[in-house]
Amino acid sequence: MKLMVGHSGNSTAVYLVDGATARNVTAAMPEVSTDLMGLISTPDLMTTLRNGALSGASEEVAKIKPALPVAAPGKILCLGLNYIEHIKEGGYDIPDYPAIFMRTRKSIMAAGAPLVRPTCSEQLDYEAELMIVIGKGGRHISEADALDHVFGYTVFNDGSVRDYQRKTHQWTPGKNFDNTGAIGPYVVTPEDLPEGAAGLKIESRVGNEILQSSNTGNMIWSVAQTIAIMSQFTTLEPGDLIAMGTPPGVGHAKKPGPRWLKPGETVEIEIERIGICASPVVDEVEEAAQ
């Protein structure tokens, strides 16, 4: 099942996507409300959606403006250094425990919204990533049970301001500039993907320029392992988001390079069978003037 949250006219709704068309789930099932939390928190609604035929006319997906799949996620947890070749290109040692950091709500935005290069830096980089939407919460989740806690998978661009990322040993500043982490537009439920969303092509590009191209099967820590590891130190809650790290090919490591994102470009992150997260790049000053 492919789901999307978006704006059409004056309303925000959950949509069930089928190719180039979508049906308004919120209009047919008002109890679902206006983001995925209704479906996440009430599994019976998901059962009804899977088993029932939605009433109402179809809409063109292209005319729906994407919104965040979860409007107010409790936690945005991110995995770093999860592809061996990316670890090598960054000059890091291969770790035996994943690098983990967090993002703030202001740092993320919906697919299609501008990716903002800040006034204080030109080193805006891209990172193609698989993202998990947690469905069932828990603490000390076993690896064997972890995939039962996944509501769905989406696409994430972990836009990073590299000079600020490297100002200290902690990555927080470079990973949390406002409007640098694009999410969506689609969330695909697990039954429509390989187990743990493994074996999917993942790519980033600007126009015809392919920046990254890899496969989610190359991740060091799988989705199940990551959920188990993260639930050791924090209680995962419904609607939490977990980003799974990026493959090689990021801009700071390009040779000759580096290759930073520039205003006027549109960066696309695509994961096979999930979709494309496209973001126009703008300068912060220009964005503020609009």
Q: What is the gist of this entry?
A:
This protein is an alpha+beta fold.
Notes on the protein architecture:
- The protein is an alpha+beta fold.
- The protein has two domains: 2-66, no CATH class; 76-289, Fumarylacetoacetase-like, C-terminal domain (Fumarylacetoacetate hydrolase, domain 2, Alpha-Beta Complex), CATH 3.90.850.
- It is 16% helix and 33% strand.
- It has helices spanning 25-28, 37-41, 43-51, 84-89, 162-165, 223-233, 284-289, and strands at residues 2-8, 11-18, 21-24, 59-60, 65-66, 76-80, 99-102, 108-110, 115-117, 124-125, 128-134, 150-158, 160-161, 181-183, 186-188, 201-206, 209-215, 241-243, 266-271, 275-283.
- The strands form four sheets. A seven-stranded mixed sheet has the order 7-6-18-11-12-14-8, covered by helices on one side. Strands 1, 2, 3, 4, 5 and 15 form a six-stranded antiparallel sheet that branches.
- Strand 16 and strand 17 form a beta hairpin.
- It starts with a strand and ends with a helix.
- The mean pLDDT is 96.
